[in-house]
Amino acid sequence: MRLTAAGVAILALLAGASAARGLTVPALPIPDDPLAGNVPKFIGSPAAPDPVIAPAVPQHPFMAANGRSNLHNDAYQTDAYTVGGPLGVGMTVRSTLLAHECASVTFDAQGRIVTVCVGVEGPFLAMLHPRTLGLMAMRLLPPRSLGSIGGGLFTDVSGGGYFYLDQNDRAVIPTNSRHVLVFSETSGPLGPGFRLDRNHDLTGAVPSGDSIISALPDWQGLIWFASTGGVVGTIDQASGTIRSLELGEVIGNSFAVDEAGGVFMVTEAALYRLEAAPDGTPVISWREPYENVGDKRPSELSAGSGTTPTLMGSDWVAITDHADPINVLVYRRGEDVVGERLICRQPVFEQGSSATEQSLIGAGNSIIVENNFGYSGLDAVMGGMSTSPGLERVDVDADGVGCATVWHSDERAPSVVPKLSLANGLVYTYTKPVRADGRDAWYFTALDFDTGETVYQRLAGTSFGHNNNYAPVTIGPDGTAYVGVLGGLVALRDGP
C-alpha cells in the first residue's frame, strides 16, 4: 500500500503526459481482503427523503460555493449539506489507489474534485474526475515535517489537511514549509493543470518546529492562519503583509469565520473570538476557558477539545470540552452579550470512554457529536477490532437556554468526520463493527436525523487501505459520497 517518492513522481509524469493528450490516468481500485467473502455488502433498507429545516449559511464572498469549499463544507464549519446524498438504492462503490489519503475533498465550478492527498513521503495537490476518480492533474507539495509540534506519521493534519478553495477555484494550501501557497487551475489544449500564483512566506511569524494547521479567509478577504503551536495571523492578499499574535496554547483543529468579522478558534485551553484590527493585526474579542482534565485520550490529536468550532445560525458557536465525559458546549458568539456567554453544557457518551476528534454537525438548534474514543492508531481497528460507540444528537432548548440529548446511536465510527444532508435527513458516517472472525469491514452508514436509527450500511471495503484515518465524509454536487482513505479515495453512489 506504500507509494514511494519515485512512485509519486511517476504519477506526476503520468498525469502530465495524460493531460498533454487531454486524457486522465485511469483509477485502479483499492484492493480488498481476498478472504473477506462472507462480509455483507448491504444492510438495512433504502431511505425515503425527510428534509431537515435549518437556517441557510451565508455564502462567503472569498470562498467557493457552500458545500464545495473546504473539509467542513462552509465558513461556519457546519458539516451540513443542502444537497442530497445516497439513499441506499442499488449503491455502487468505486475507489482509486493512490497510497495517499485524499481527505479534504473540494469541487471546482466544473464539478471536478480538487483535493490534497497526504502520504508517508509527502502531500500532493490533485484534480480527479468526479465519476471515474481518474487523475486529471497533480502538483507535488512540500514534504512532511514530522518534527513539528504534535506531528506524527498518521496524526499530523498540518501541511494541507485543512485547505480551502476560493471564489476563483484557487486552492489555498498551508504547507509543511511554513508557507501558504495559492494554486490556480489552468486549461487549454494540453488539458487541466495547476499554476502557482502566490507564495506567502510565514517563516517570520511561525517559528521553526511549528507548523501551520489551517488557513481560511475572513469576510474582508484577509487570509487567516493558525499554527499548532498557537500562532494566529493574517495575510493581506494584495500587499502580502503578515500580522500575527501568539496565543501560547496548542491548536489542534481548524477554525470558523462569520460575516460579522469573527474568527473562532479553540485551543487546548479555551475558545476564542478574534477579529482583525484596521491594520490586519489579530485582536482577541473574548476568551472562554473550558474544562480540561489534562489527559490525551486514544483518538485525540491534542490534549484538549477535538472540535473545530461550529457556528449555528446568527448567534451561537459550539464545541466540546475535555472533561470526562466530554460535554457539548454552546456559547453566544457576539462580541458583547447580555448575561452568561455559555448557554448550555450537555455531557455525552460514557465516563472513561468519551472523546471526539471531529467537528460537530450544526443544523438549526441541533448538534450531532461522534465518539472516537479508542482510535489509538491504525492497529486499534485491525483484526476485527473497533472503537467505543457511538453518535448522539443534542438540541438546544427552544428558549435558547439549556440543552438535552435527543438520541444515542451505538454505531462505531473510529475517526470519520460525519456529515448531514439537509435535503434528505440522513446523517452519514463511516463505521467499523466488531467482528469475531477478525475481518475488517468498513461501512458507509446512514442514520435517521430524527431518531438516530441506522437506516442502511453499504460496505466500502475490507482492507487496511479502506481505513479513513480522520478523513471526512464528503457529498458531491451530484449526490455522490466520498471518503478519503489510506489507500486514496472511495466514492459511493446510488445506482445505476
Question: What is the structure about, briefly put?
Answer:
With 496 residues, the chain is mostly beta strands.
Q: What is the CATH T-level topology?
A: Methylamine Dehydrogenase, Chain H
CATH class: Mainly Beta
Regarding quaternary structure, what we see is: single chain
Number of domains: 1
Report the average pLDDT across residues.
93
Which percent band covers the strand fraction?
Answer: 35-45%
Count of individual helical segments: 1
Number of strands: 34
The profile of the biggest β sheet is:
6 strands, mixed
Structural class label: mainly beta
Examine the secondary-structure arrangement and name the CATH architecture.
7 Propeller
Give a topology summary.
Layout: H1 5-20, E1 42-44, E2 80-81, E3 92-97, E4 101-107, E5 113-118, E6 123-128, E7 135-140, E8 164-165, E9 171-174, E10 179-186, E11 193-201, E12 212-217, E13 223-227, E14 231-235, E15 242-246, E16 256-257, E17 263-266, E18 270-276, E19 282-289, E20 310-312, E21 316-320, E22 327-332, E23 342-347, E24 361-363, E25 366-370, E26 391-396, E27 403-409, E28 419-421, E29 426-431, E30 442-448, E31 454-461, E32 473-475, E33 481-485, E34 488-493
Parallel strand pairs: 2-28
Antiparallel strand pairs: 1-31, 3-34, 4-5, 5-6, 6-7, 8-9, 9-10, 10-11, 12-13, 13-14, 14-15, 16-17, 17-18, 18-19, 20-21, 21-22, 22-23, 24-25, 25-26, 26-27, 28-29, 29-30, 30-31, 32-33, 33-34
